[in-house]
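Supplementary Methods, section 5.1.

A reviewer requested that the exact input to the structure prediction be made available. We therefore reproduce it here, unchanged from the version used in the analyses.
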Amino acid sequence: MQILSAPFAAVVAGDYESIATTTVGSGGQTPITFSNIPQTYKHLQLRIMSRDARSATANNLFATFNGDTASNYSNHNLIGDGASAISEGYANEAQMVFGINTSNSAAANIFGVSIVDILDYTNTNKYKTVRTLTGADQNGSGTIRLWSSNWRSSSAVTSITLFGGTTPNISQYSSFALYGIKG
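The structure derived from this sequence is encoded token-by-token as follows.
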């Protein structure tokens, strides 16, 4: 079976290799960091199921590369909730958006789910582009979002740090898996 991947090239399912996984234990955790990322793949993919300790039912999951917390990121999104659609854009941000966390005030055992593609992460001749497909179902009041993000750096991505917002505790049972794509 072949899967269409970025940018529009056929990728065989065996081209995905697990690099690292983590599942959050009792009491929660923040941040989640993948460091010393091998520089031997064409692209990276993160697969995420997450909740956080904030009170809103759906919150953004944020990320930075290589410890860069300066205003070097841009984010654009398209949001749909079954009744309406909106789009937004943000420049000069201190982080990217890598998905949705449901919160502890959401129904029990409901997690936000995200697939994040980090394209050409080793290429030192261009800025890094990220695309994220994310969503959370809340028994009819959920949301689905398509994000595109940009890190304005030509450095290769060697680490990824994921975190919540003002109450940054990522909840127990949240799961993060990083894959390399041979492409």
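The domain at 15-181 is CATH 2.60.120 (Jelly Rolls). These observations are discussed further in the main text.
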